[in-house]
Amino acid sequence: MLNFFKKGKSQALDIYAPVNGEILRIEEVPDPVFSQKMMGEGAAVMPNGGNIVAPVNGKVLQVAPTKHAIGLLADDGTEILIHVGLETVALNGEGFKPAVKEGDKVSVGQLLLEVDWDFVGANAVSTVTPIVITNSQGSGKDYVTTEEKTAVAGETVIINVK
């Protein structure tokens, strides 16, 4: 019974896939800003359809004005950026329909963004979608990427934060 009240054991955070597809290491993303971890630790998914869902329980920090990226704050303080495709800022919001707004509370698997993958695939450099922990540098936490190769949105853990 007393163990119930003990403090100090840090909780791990599971970050789930925000979209269905093939899981890639962040180093495999064909963009140095992501592959060289300039924005932080992470992983990526090469989508094979479906929409973008929340990878964690938390709240929406930002929906980019061009709708191609969403920033989240997980309940444990981890900041996560979901960047849909590469060079997608140039699409000026076309192909994206946000289902959330800044300040909204979200839970794992909740719809964040509807994506027209055909349009994005035809008009962007790539559909590869990095999931970056923007406050990972200097955090003292460990980030372990899954060995899984296939992601199911809202079900497959792609990163574990300890």
From TrEMBL:
Location in the cell: Cytoplasm
Annotated keywords: Kinase, Phosphotransferase system, Sugar transport, Transferase, Transport
Domain PTS EIIA type-1 residues, every copy: 31-135
SUPFAM superfamilies documented for this protein: Duplicated hybrid motif (SSF51261)
Record GO terms (molecular function): kinase activity
Keyword Hydrolase: no
PROSITE patterns (alphabetical): PTS_EIIA_TYPE_1 (PS51093), PTS_EIIA_TYPE_1_HIS (PS00371)
Gene Ontology annotations for the cellular component aspect, listed alphabetically: cytoplasm
Keyword Kinase: yes
GO biological process, alphabetically ordered: phosphoenolpyruvate-dependent sugar phosphotransferase system
Pfam families: PTS_EIIA_1 (PF00358)
Protein name listed in UniProt: PTS glucose transporter subunit IIA
